[in-house]
Prior knowledge:
The structure is a homodimer. By secondary structure, the first copy, chain A, is α/β, with parallel strands linked by helices.
Amino acid sequence: MKIIKYPSREQWADLIRRPQIDTTQLHATVSSILSEVKAHGDDAVRKYEEQFDHAQLHTLAITEAEMEEAERLVSDDLKAAIVLAHRNIAKFHEAQQFESHKIETCEGVECWQKSVAIEKVGLYIPGGTAPLFSTVLMLATPAKIAGCRQIVLCTPPNREGKVNPAILVAARVAGVSHVFKAGGVQAIGAMAYGTESIPRVYKIFGPGNQYVMAAKQLVSLHDTAIDMPAGPSEVCVVADASSDAEFVAADLLSQAEHGIDSQVFLITTSEEMLQKVTEQVDVQLAALPRKEIAQQSLNNSIFVLVRDEAEAMDLSNAYAPEHLIIATSDYERLAEKVVNAGSVFLGRWACESAGDYASGTNHTLPTHQYALAYNGVNLDSFNRKITFQHLSEAGIGSIGHAVACMAENEQLEAHAQAMRIRMSKLGLR
Amino acid sequence: MKIIKYPSREQWADLIRRPQIDTTQLHATVSSILSEVKAHGDDAVRKYEEQFDHAQLHTLAITEAEMEEAERLVSDDLKAAIVLAHRNIAKFHEAQQFESHKIETCEGVECWQKSVAIEKVGLYIPGGTAPLFSTVLMLATPAKIAGCRQIVLCTPPNREGKVNPAILVAARVAGVSHVFKAGGVQAIGAMAYGTESIPRVYKIFGPGNQYVMAAKQLVSLHDTAIDMPAGPSEVCVVADASSDAEFVAADLLSQAEHGIDSQVFLITTSEEMLQKVTEQVDVQLAALPRKEIAQQSLNNSIFVLVRDEAEAMDLSNAYAPEHLIIATSDYERLAEKVVNAGSVFLGRWACESAGDYASGTNHTLPTHQYALAYNGVNLDSFNRKITFQHLSEAGIGSIGHAVACMAENEQLEAHAQAMRIRMSKLGLR
């Protein structure tokens, strides 16, 4: 790790800089796969599944028999954990339901918002070594609560053409309508354009490698909304002399194991804590199965000693982390100062893993400083707030003249006329 | 206009198809301007202002003297209209304030959302013949209510280096921090990267021509969030025998005058109403100053006669219009059936102009069928909902085992360990 003591504010820009990710170099490759899928549908998806996932597929849809097989393969312990996590995620996202109320902005003019679910959404769940069934819960649970009519999930099969059973169990628990064996760019294309098997959706959610991200960005230019741009996962821990060094080290390592590009950032006001965490990281690292990955990620991690709490929070806000753990005893006061972060974990017991899996908050969060402008996935991500308005005759009296005057001054005479024709019907001018 | 009577559902896809807008052809040109602005800041902005707006600028920032001059130039009548519109827009968007409440998802686990304003936002207001001061109100008012610390506005000057005074008055009324003379791609680049004069912002809002749209899309791939993708403006009017043909025709024309690519769509259950509206359009068109534009747009407009109300609303939802006017007497019942639309106007008095200017709803809305997945600008557009969580010792007991079990099954051992280390401190397993 890089240990930096009392950096000046001028040095901050270097400390918080993320590695550049430029997926535009991939655009040519990704575009050609997308075009193939648009033109040839299922045939193209099957071709790329063979090429990239080495799976020969006859049908793309998961069958009821495969669902039942998955239920048998997943242990009762894991099933119970999935059900518990789903319950908490559902509870937190149900509490985000929007209550509409009408506002009379002036006499005779009523305006309101109504939250309406996006009819068709697509969830992408990557394959690979770590089967992210937790992400199935994080995306499908709010989609179901929002009332999305069609919830489509694509995930790549293994060489035997099988999908990880925990993904299928999580999909059933959370209420996914249709699961398909498709990964990578071909899955994103299939959900953006629709194929014979895979329905077109209006918004695509979920993580993926750089090809998947590039595909999501490309389809978002024309056809389909996406949840948010993404980069490597990140944690920032703010610690002081009251923090538990063992816990802090464990939290930093849990981020470091994600991948060699994971971002691990420690900010502390205590030189002694800095020393203790550094030692604990070494101790705990030795015992980890993914220690090579964690070690590489730690080599790029940054541990910063700052003068006081105010500086700690300013630096954290400048960094704008995906996950922020405030591991101090007076976390409540510091929490008030958070301006830029995806999800914030307060106190010594709130480890990032809690929110990654089962506390109820969403783990699909803005990385790569996107927290400056984006929030994580929540119930709103699956809804649109449509505005409605009703005017009575009195409403024309209230705003008619102002509307006509503004329209004339914008040189939009027909806009003015649409109001004036109503005013004259009511004898107003 | 194209009049289509009782089309089959198979024909709908053709009726609702929008003109293709492919800004990717512009990407090379737009990219090179963006790169210049990134590299050369104010000098590049000044260079392109001279090239595209034929304005020689020394300073880009609007001065206090220019603000005062604008106040003198705008009539009292228009000022009063701007103040009235601002008051209604503020009232509607203030009512969208988010109230945070803590949710105990299970014993000892508390989760909540907090709405925090994006610190720096940029508003783009196009120049040209129609000075869109109304859009200043629509963007700056909610930005101010959200609490954005810096609200930057860029708008192109005319050949004399002047900005339309109504734009400046609206900016002052709505609380814009800084106004700059910059238009087009160079303005978007300046706000995305920052220059010596123009601050970098985290999210850019506002309409523009295809170059501006392409620039917004390109910066959104890397640096800066944007409000939404955009296409030509649209209205869909649903009318029956109870509608007022004069009003309906006026509403269709107010959309048609926007530009030759404006989309005008009438759905009616009454053949007589179809006839009457067609006649009224001709009568009213003759009196419009922008009749050439409106005529061209009307040539591409579509008037559809359908069998019944249910079919009318199904077709409207398939079209997913930016603006939907339900001009029937039983609008309340039909409003319940709206699934895809940006903003909905109910009853004979609620003309689109009302919402375009002064009723209080926002007029920055999803066009081009983006209403399938996006909503218009609202207070949330200027905020992020950051999630927070706190766990007590009891919380570790509630979810600790589930978290460790799920993490192990995702082969993320350090994630499991971060929870287990806490469980063992509490003597839990």
